[in-house]
Amino acid sequence: MAGRRPEAGQGVYAISVAAEMVGLDPQSLRLYERRGLLDPARTPGGTRRYSSDDVDRLGRIGELLGAGLNLAGVAAVLELEADNARLRARLADEDGDEAQRAGGAQRAGEAQRAGGAQRAGGAERTAAVDGPGEVRRGGRDTRASPA
Predict the structure, then answer these.
(1) In CATH, what class is 15-115?
(2) Which residue among 38, 85, 91, 110 sits deepest, i.e. has the most Cβ atoms within 10 Å of its Cβ?
(3) What b/e sequence results for 78-89 when a residue is b if at least 16 CB atoms lie within 10 Å of its CB, and e otherwise?
(4) What is the dihedral of CA 67, 72, 74, 80, to 10 degrees?
(5) What Rg do the C-alpha atoms of the chain give, in angstroms?
(6) pLDDT confidence of 141, banded at 50, 70, 90?
């Protein structure tokens, strides 16, 4: 029987295993939890269980510490990254909604233009452009005449 993979947020790794996976000692993981950098799941008996998301976050914490940030800086970066991800998701949702609205408006505009062209006998008036700011309508020059 093939084993199934745990879900990304499901706590399955003991603290010693999670620490070994990211090359840290268990005491560092406890410290990061006390500082609010991560919040592992707990068993009914209180044992910490780290998920693959937690392990990924621990890896990111290690990268930021390796880049010279202190724990306060790491917390700020992680918070900003989470905010950025939330805003990108919201923007993607809004872009999807906007595309749907634009697609509907475009189809409505095309139908309206097609209907208008049929009512006008298919003839459309266009404006001729002579140059910047110079437009002739119906063959007349609309530029101001010299005084």
Answers:
(1) mainly alpha
(2) 38
(3) beeeeeeeeeee
(4) -130
(5) 31
(6) low
pTM: 0.60
Q: What is the pLDDT of residues 69-97, one digit of tens each?
A: 999 999 999 999 999 999 999 999 988 88
Residues 117-127: pLDDT tens digits?
Answer: 555 554 444 44
Report CA dihedral (122, 128, 134, 135) to the nearest 10 degrees: -30
Q: How far apart are the first and last CA of the chain?
A: 95
Q: Which residues make Cβ contacts (< 8 Å) with residue 95, sequence separation at least 6?
A: none
Q: What share of the chain is helix, strand, coil (3-state, %, to 5)?
A: 55, 10, 35
Fill in the amino acid letter for 69.
L
Q: Evaluate whether 71 touches 30 at the Cβ level (below 8 Å).
A: no
